Each structure stands twice: as structure tokens, then as C-alpha cells.
Amino acid sequence: MPLDRYKNPCPGGYQIHVGDMPVAGTLGARVMWGVPVKDVVITAGHVVNNPNASVFQPGGFGAAGEVHRIGRVAERSARRTYRNVAAFVGSLDDSPESRISCHYDFASIDVANYPTETSYRIPEINEADHPLDIRDPREGEWVQWLGMSTGIVRKGQVKDVSFWMPRSLDPTNVVNEQFFSVYPLTLIEVQGNMPTREGDSGAAVVAVTDRNIVGVHCFGATNRSGKPFTVASGIPAPQALTNGTSSISFEEVNRWIARTKAWRDS
User: Fold this and answer.
1) Alpha-carbon torsion (133, 199, 259, 77), positive or negative
2) Checking DSSP bridges between strand 54-56 and strand 29-33, what pairing results, if any?
3) How does 18-30 read in b/e, with b if 16+ C-beta sit within 10 Å?
4) How many helices (H) and strands (E) does the chain have?
5) Using an 8 Å Cβ cutoff, are 48 and 148 in contact?
6) What residue ranges of the chain have pLDDT lower than 70?
7) pLDDT of 61-78, one tens digit each?
């Protein structure tokens, strides 16, 4: 069942929402991160919006006494949006600077003023109340995650650590739909036949072998044969957030599109 209820202290895997965003996501994990290193909660960048916005658990917009604030948005990875995927792809004649792909889909939430509202636990993944370490993902390793919509721990195998895929920033906004591109992403083939669900974004992706966090879930779907996959963003070094974009050539974009299409058609 979905983990969309109030839980105090709130562990990883449970629902959070930000005061200025219409969609909910998942509290990934409480970790030590930043410069200087500090206590933060990590989630996907598209789950949050403006820095300093309040982050709540369910009930944050309810009756008096139900304001379950866990912290405020501290930092979010750089992002440029496009009207549609074609606007990003462009043409051979466009300059590379017109195609900017984010390096991450990541955000941190400052919990210093609310130290008892969250815990380091992720049910069935990290049962001890201490933070997990962070590292880069490795191709071929098995990973696990807990998303609030799915509500159970899922497992999968890393198939690609340099994957690309555009995604809609807010699929509910059909009038002003916006897309953004992230590269490199981690492609994970999900064990079983159940895909991840909308709202699982932000879940911490944890390596099975050493229980290090290797990313945050940011997208899920199925390929043409019905095999589910999950796409995760890496977790940046703090200084990378301010320069997390790069100019992409038309040839590189077409190579990414071909790899993405090959996977989805497999």
C-alpha cells in the first residue's frame, strides 16, 4: 500500500510535498551531504521547485495542527526546460549551446530546524538510525529502493550508467507542458513485472552489496515487451549543482535517442 500517511519521525520512502509544487514525491533518505557537510534529506529535483520552499508530509495543507513540516528546500540541480522534446533536439544547424542537458535531477532539503521530524531509516533497507554513505553507481550491480506510491521495496540491476531520457516536468499541466533532459542517468532493469509508479520519484537507490546510496529514482516506465525499468539520477558533489549543465552536439543527441529507442523497443 502507498506510504502516503503521516509518520513521525518520517523515514525514507514516505510521501513528501513542497508548498509551491502540485505533485508529491518520495523522501529519499536523510544523509550527510554538502559543503560543509550537514544533515539533509535528498530527493529528486523535479519534486521540488524554489529554494527555501517549505517541505511537508501529508496533512501539511490540512486543518490547524496538521502542518507537518520536515524542512525547507536547500539546493536543487540546475535545470533548463523546453516546450517539447523536439525543441531540445533541434537541428544540425543549431548551436550546441541551444541544447543544454542537466547533469542531475536532484535536490536537498535542510532539516536542521526540524531535527526530530525525519530519521535515517529506510524500512527494510536501512533499519539502523544512522546515515548511509553515497557513491557512484556501477554497471551490473543490484540495487533496491522504496517509493511512496509503490509502497514496497523493489530491486533491479543496473544496465547502463550513461543513459539519457527526457521527461515531462509536470505531466498534469497539459496547457503548459515542459520537458527537461538529464544526462548521464542510471538505467535499472526492474526485477518482476510491476513498474514503478508516479510519486516514487525521489526514492533513494541503494546498492544491495554495501548499502551505499547510488542515486535517486526520477522516472519509471516499461519497454515495448512490457519489461519495467527505472531511471535514476546520480547524486552530485555539492559544487556540481551550480554548473550542472553542458552543451550537447546534435550528433550526441542522436546517439542518445538511438540508445533510448533501442532499449524501449527491446
Assistant:
1) negative
2) unpaired
3) bbebebbbbbbbb
4) 2, 15
5) no
6) 20-22, 59-67, 170-175, 242-246
7) 544 445 689 999 999 988
- Give the residue from 4, 45, 28, 13 showing the smallest Cα distance to 170: 45
Amino acid at 157: Q
Using alpha carbons, list the distances in angstroms from residue 152 to 149, 191, 227: 9, 13, 18
Nearest Cα residue to 138 out of 21, 28, 232:
232
Cα radius of gyration rounded to whole Å, the chain: 18
- Take residue 54 and report the three cell numbers written for it: 517549505
Number of other residues whose CB lies within 10 A of the CB of residue 174: 8
- How many angstroms separate the CA atoms of 145 and 229, rounded? 13
Cβ neighbourhood burial of 76 (10 Å; 0-12, 13-18, 19+): buried
Question: How many residues appear in the chain?
Answer: 266
Smallest Cα–Cα separation from 183: which of 196, 169, 200, 166? 166
For residue 253, the surrounding DSSP H or E stretch is: helix 250-265
Q: What is the pLDDT of residue 62?
A: 47
User: pLDDT at position 212, please?
Assistant: 98
Q: Phi-psi bin for 215: left (phi > 0), alpha (psi -120 to 50), beta? A: left
* CA dist list (Å): 50 to 21, 45, 177, 225: 9, 10, 18, 38
| Cis amide prior to 36 (ω within 30 degrees) | yes
